[in-house]
Specification:
alpha+beta; globular; Creatine Amidinohydrolase, Chain A, domain 1; 3 domains; 606 residues; 6-stranded mixed beta sheet; Creatine Amidinohydrolase
């Protein structure tokens, strides 16, 4: 009945390959006079989702999470993950050959400093390390008396005999009506930012910034419509785009040519040399640009100005067309999600439904809108203890039936007018008192973010604790950020805005973020409630400062059956009732008869 076209449930991790592949890597390093190797999960663009040809870390270790780092030494090797992936890493990695380390406990650079020996030569691929990230390793190696050696070729590429070819997905134009601004206008704004910064040019290495600036999209990586390539934007004059010409139709090439010269990626090296010959100042984002680019510019004679890519913040502030698109996408997506939740309520109690079946059904309902371009990430369809893994990915090997308790479904969609991301935790059968307590505390934290009002200049770090307080009061917490930025038919995880302890960028009107506190009891259950929110101006009588708040974009009921109503304040109950009334009013007219009946019950006042 249902099928998934945009996600696979095959198990790709094979821990048994870790030992022979690590041995082969060490042998290859030895032939080059090297004692170790540094391997981030990264490509030349620092993408979250990588083309298959760049999944070197997964090939070596078996670990398939979206964040990881490997340090290989002659006698030791360690894989570093964050709190989202500690359990997954233990399941996918052979502990006999790789230690698994949580970066909260020790960072890769700290581990290198403690484990590297004096005189050791440790290789790295300069295309995969950012300027900022590499600096930490350089200091660690120096402290240990070791030497870091830049390699012209990644040694894994020679060992990976069946490595996929680099992607060549067609580039498509993103309509100006959806973008809300022409590429020429965006370039003018970027050039104005360069003038303010007293920079002569900007090197764009982030494919998201490339796509946004030139109003193009592609399919070179899974789930994010990215065309991989690079660009140079001068403070004055025409820009340069470096992209494989096989991806460009005549229509796309002609459109790009209106604002930029087009060249093959291999021409970028010569272009950087030209910048050096002109003795220009080039803006480079140290958190996004590879150290290889910085060195090429330095060697050419250019002056490097390290600082955030100005495009990132321009992209983060959505214009009116993008905001209208986000609202339309969420209305469409909400109708599909409510249809799914209605179906789930009917099917789950029968006992035959499993995690894969639920993920397939939700993707099918979204596809039936006729507008779905892709899922925005593989659905986290998690029952029972699997839901305690914040970034769990269901496979045929891990697939569980939906048994009585809590079922978590975190999913999203890519539409041309917007990107969605939503999590609902649904009660199947009865909940334990602990489940109800934790579900309600997560909800209270979610409401605290949704209702937050804050002055201009406040960052996500300053409100992150709002979402945690109800859990802190019970001696609990969660190990991920409360919210990440979201793009406009781009990445579901977009910076620089975020609500987390690390979110130091001020929140501004037009930014879209997630609001997703959670709770995870390892081996038992997991809870997360997530909606997307839009930063907007708030008029407060008598306010002495410019004030902001959030508009909730996501439209789907929060399961009332799992709430311990007595734990909510009157204001929290009122907020939830208002939200559910809005969901019913906006989604109800789009729903079929069965879903409408279900919605009326799911959205009834507490």
């Amino acid at each position: 009945m249902f099928e998934a076209r945009f996600q696979s449930f095959d198990e790709t991790a094979d821990p048994s390959q870790g030992a022979p592949r690590l041995a082969a890597l060490r042998a290859a390093l030895k032939t080059q006079g090297l004692d170790g190797f540094l391997l981030p999960r990264a490509d030349e663009h620092q993408n979250e989702y990588l083309p298959p040809s760049a999944e070197r870390l997964a090939w070596l270790t078996g670990f398939t999470g979206s964040f990881g780092f490997v340090v290989v030494l002659a006698e030791e090797a360690a894989v570093f993950v964050d709190g989202r992936y500690t359990v997954q890493a233990r399941a996918q990695i052979d502990p006999a050959v790789f230690a698994t380390v949580n970066v909260i406990d020790k960072s890769p650079s700290e581990w290198l400093k403690a484990h590297a020996r004096e005189g050791e030569r440790i290789g790295y691929d300069p295309r995969l390390h950012t300027v900022e990230g590499f600096e930490r390793f350089a200091k660690a190696a120096e402290a240990a008396g070791a030497e870091l050696v830049a390699l012209d070729e990644n040694p894994i590429d020679a060992l990976w005999t069946d490595r996929p070819a680099p992607p060549l997905a067609p580039v498509v134009l993103h309509d100006d009506a959806l973008a809300g601004e022409s590429a020429a206008s965006k370039l003018a704004r970027v050039q104005a930012e360069l003038a303010k910064a007293k920079a002569d040019a900007l090197l764009i290495t982030d494919a998201h910034c490339l796509a946004w600036t030139f109003n193009i999209r592609g399919g070179d990586v899974a789930h994010t419509p990215l065309p991989l390539g690079f660009a140079i934007v001068p403070a004055e004059g025409r820009s340069f785009v470096f992209m494989d010409g096989r991806k460009l139709s005549n229509v796309v090439r002609n459109a790009l040519s209106e604002t930029a010269e087009i060249a093959e990626p291999g021409a970028l090296t010569a272009a950087l040399a030209t910048l050096g010959e002109a003795e220009v100042t080039v803006r480079l984002d140290p958190a996004a640009a590879a150290i290889s680019f910085a060195r090429a510019l330095e060697e050419s004679g250019a002056t490097i100005q390290l600082g955030p890519d100005p495009i990132a913040k321009l992209k983060a502030r959505k214009n009116e067309a993008e905001i209208a698109g986000a609202r339309a996408a969420h209305l469409r997506d909400g109708a599909a999600l409510c249809r799914f939740l209605c179906w789930l309520d009917a099917e789950a109690p029968k006992g035959a439904l499993d995690e894969i079946g639920a993920a397939e059904a939700l993707e099918t309902f979204r596809r039936e809108t006729g507008k779905l371009k892709d899922v925005s990430f593989p659905s986290i369809s998690a029952a029972g203890p699997n839901a305690a893994l914040p970034h769990y990915r269901v496979t045929t090997a891990t697939n569980r039936k939906l048994t009585p308790g809590l079922f978590l479904i975190d999913s999203g969609a890519q539409y041309e007018d917007g990107t969605t991301d939503v999590t609902r935790t649904v009660l199947v059968g009865e909940a334990t008192p602990e489940m109800r307590d934790r579900f309600t505390r997560v909800l209270r934290g979610h409401i605290a973010i949704s209702t937050a009002v804050f002055p201009k200049g406040v960052s996500g770090a300053q409100i992150d604790g709002f979402a945690r307080r109800p859990l802190w009061e019970a001696g609990a917490d969660f190990d991920h950020g409360t919210g990440h930025g979201v793009g406009s038919y781009l990445s579901v995880h977009e910076g620089p805005q975020r609500i987390s302890k690390l979110g130091t960028v001020a929140l501004e009107p037009g930014m879209i973020l997630s609001n997703e506190p959670g709770y995870y009891r390892e081996g038992a259950f997991g809870i997360r409630t997530e909606t997307l929110v839009l930063v907007e101006r708030r008029a407060i009588p008598g306010a002495e400062r410019e004030m902001y708040g959030f508009e909730t974009l996501t439209l789907a009921p929060i399961d009332r059956r799992a709430i311990e109503v007595g734990m909510l304040t009157a204001d929290e109950r009122a907020w939830l009732d208002r939200y559910h009334a809005r969901v019913l009013a906006e989604i109800g007219p789009l729903a079929d008869a069965d879903t409408r009946v279900w919605l009326e019950a799911a959205c009834a006042p507490l």
